[in-house]
Batch of 2 targets.
Target 1
Amino acid sequence: MSVALLGQLYDYHHWANRRLFEISANLGEAATSRTMGAPWSFPTLKGMFAHLYGADALWLARWKGSSPARLHDDGDFPTMADLRAKWDLLEAEQRAFVDGLAEADLTRQFSYRSAQGTEFRLPLGPIVQHVVNHGTHHRSELAAMLTLINGSPPDTGIASYCLTVAKG
Amino acid sequence: MELDLIRGIWDYHWWGNRTLFDQAAALGEAAAKKDMGAHWSFPSLKGMLAHIYGADRIWLARWKGESPTKLHGDADFSSLADLRTAWDALEAEQRAFVGSLGTATLARTLDYKSTDGKPFAQPLWQLLQHVVNHATHHRSEVAAMLTMAKGSPPSTDMVLFYRQPKR
């Protein structure tokens, strides 16, 4: 059941990311590169999405045994369309990794070096959960930024996801 | 393992809530009541924290077989101090509930009614994940509001929680 629990958590993660990405992309490239002010982790919609992509890519690489020194960000993607193309590939790779997990993998410790070179050793299962939680933090910022631009976007809660998409 | 995963995110949840609550409380009651703008789910720090409390409370009641029609919020608390007292009691009750869970209980289908009386049925484990995820959404807003009020608060990223020495 643990593996199914994480599999469904990633279904949710991908659904919520795409839901907000599509609304943002529909606003046009100019709106997604507009600076939205100082209280945000990243000042533009594109920058926030690029960070979500970057963190997901970094953790997936760490789970697979490498320790990239660089976190991808806004500067790596000239447009939302460009980000979408790369994200589709990453999502498929992430999906395959999560689907391939066995029960024993979840308690396995994995080691990685942070971008600053610090060594860490953490259990895989909780960190697979971490990536979704990290995404929710930034999706909240995206939702507030979208509210400023064109009104509140639809809900991206897990309960909504389970009731409307996964049907329990 | 699924029990450990669920207990892990709940330990994280209580830590994240307290980390940000303490930051908000340190600003003082007046700052916590200040209207921070229309683009937030709730306009003040106190209102946002009261909503996290309210959602946590209604879900815990549902898990225990009740279907409350009232969602607690800002107006139920005269101050952050007042909210803290109620929240400490709720957290203790949540800890007892999460501590008592078994693998079979996690898979159990829970029937409940929303505040407007609509019936729903979902496995308990989905809802246990939902409540933590719900709060992360609003903790992000609390963090951005604190950033506006006095600069960025400490991070409540889940990985930082797991990197801490064993609790």
Note: Chain A has one domain: 2-166.
Target 2
Amino acid sequence: MSEKIKVEKKVLSENDRLAADIRANLAVRKILALNLVSSPGSGKTSLLERTLRELGEKLNMALIAGDVQTENDADRLTRAGGRIVRPIITGGACHLDARMIGNVLDKIELAGIDVLFIENVGNLVCPSSYDLGEDMKVVLISTTEGDDKPLKYPAMFRRSSVMIVNKIDLMGLSDFDLAKVKQNARTINSRLEIFDISCRTGEGMENWYKWLLNATEKKKNA
Amino acid sequence: MHELRVATEIIEIVQSEMDRLKLSGIKEVGLRLGALSGFDAGALTFSFEAAVADTVLDGARLKIEQIPVKGDCTSCHKDFEVNEFFFICPFCGSSDISIVQGEELDITYLVEK
């Protein structure tokens, strides 16, 4: 009977190490980094487009747009006024990892940037396990999805600091219950900051902007 | 896809441990897997078995110890098992809970062949 040889190794330690390097690098420059996660089609790119258009004067934003295929999202963000937009095509991988982000950041002039948005691949499972060196994860959910999604993907909602409910202009067209989704999310994570918005009509966006400006300011003074 | 990628990372870590410990073959790899790790035990075992073929770990099996989520209540400081990911303290009803265990994805031991 062979003996167990004890080893204690975190499987994702290499990713965690690279993420810590990124976090330290961004902290020196006082750049707020937000990792945007959601299912496909919840409105990550739409949120960033509108934020660029309406807050582009006040905040210098850099954006990394991850997708399995195509640079369509990066093109949309550039058209919306994004000056620093970098696509990452994962070529099949279902999430971004710290190595991909580090490689992109190495080629960006970071001086003067206030906020770095990382638009992750649309997926509520895999991106939850990979630290990208962000300050916070922002999870989006839209009113055309099930209001039980926080319960189905607890790891993601637990690890996020902000939840944005998008497409509130479409409420009433589906059985989505806004109070219920918030209740579900809060049983997983009571500290979630929650915003209800419509990226299409602009409703509720001012609360998100207020929070974003405040978080950027906090990072500057940290 | 997700689990296959991690299975490959596990194999790479085990290979470097084999070099370090001067082991020639591995029969079993022990893994601690938290319920909140974001990885599925079945898919991970399946991916691992497929990925070890034709490597120095060929034939090795992955033995997964599944770890339930445990929370610590920040209000009344009692520990409890978090069922169904409901982060509510069963003793005082507080929802301010920190995670004590359940996020693990660690290689814990190796058995030499």
Note: The interface with chain A takes residues 1-2, 5-6, 9-10, 13, 17, 21, 23, 27, 30-31, 36-39, 84-88, 95-97, 99, 105-113 of chain B (CB under 8 Å).
